[in-house]
């Protein structure tokens, strides 16, 4: 199977990297804005590394897995997983200050699912998932910081 890959870029002219990093690193709030995330619980913290228990699902389909989040505040957040439904998963968030103020958020992902059927379903739904993540992340930022 060919890994699935993609990403998005969003400019936030009224918010800085520290604010946006804080929203992205609030992993236990992911069920509030990440599609199909039902649970994200930090299992262990060790320096700038978080070990996270995750539950994602839609209807009767559910997947539990553990991920690792590496923090470099306020510049980047890298989330990886190789268990549960994933052969590999990587989501990299980058927070780039903009000239004249604000911040650009760049997110890139790659993943390969163990199940060919799930991999095919993911391929079909990725553009919608990306759209929802961006919309929900923007809304979460507005809820916390305004504008």
Notes on the protein architecture:
There is one protein chain. The chain has 147 residues and is an alpha+beta fold. The chain has a single domain, classed as START domain (Alpha-D-Glucose-1,6-Bisphosphate, Chain A, domain 4). It has two helices and seven strands. The protein has helices at residues 17-25, 116-145, and strands spanning 4-12, 37-46, 49-58, 61-72, 76-81, 86-97, 103-113. Strands 1-7-6-5-4-3-2 form a seven-stranded antiparallel β-sheet, with helices on one face. Helix 1 (17-25) crosses helix 2 (116-145). The protein is globular, with a radius of gyration of 15 Å. 22% of the residues are buried. The model has no long low-confidence stretch (mean pLDDT 94).
CATH superfamily: START domain
Rg, rounded, reads: 15 Å
Q: Spans with pLDDT under 50 lasting ≥5 residues? A: none
- SSE sequence, one letter per element: EHEEEEEEH
Distance between the termini: 42 Å
- Beta-strand proportion: over 45%
Essential attributes:
Alpha-D-Glucose-1,6-Bisphosphate, Chain A, domain 4; alpha+beta; 7-stranded antiparallel β-sheet; globular; 2 helices; 147 residues; 7 strands
């Amino acid at each position: 199977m060919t890994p699935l890959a993609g990403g998005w870029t969003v400019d936030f002219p009224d918010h800085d990297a520290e604010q946006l990093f804080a929203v992205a690193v609030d992993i236990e709030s992911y069920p509030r804005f990440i599609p199909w995330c039902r649970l994200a619980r930090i299992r262990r913290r060790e320096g700038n590394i978080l070990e996270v228990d995750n539950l994602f699902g839609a209807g009767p389909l559910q997947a539990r897995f553990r991920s690792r989040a590496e923090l470099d505040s306020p510049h980047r957040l890298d989330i990886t997983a190789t268990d549960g439904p994933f052969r590999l998963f990587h989501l990299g968030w980058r927070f780039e200050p903009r000239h004249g103020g604000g911040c650009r958020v760049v997110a890139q992902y790659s993943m390969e699912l163990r199940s060919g059927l799930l991999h095919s379903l993911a391929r079909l739904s990725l553009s919608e998932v990306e759209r929802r993540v961006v919309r929900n992340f923007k809304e979460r930022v507005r809820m916390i910081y305004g504008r």
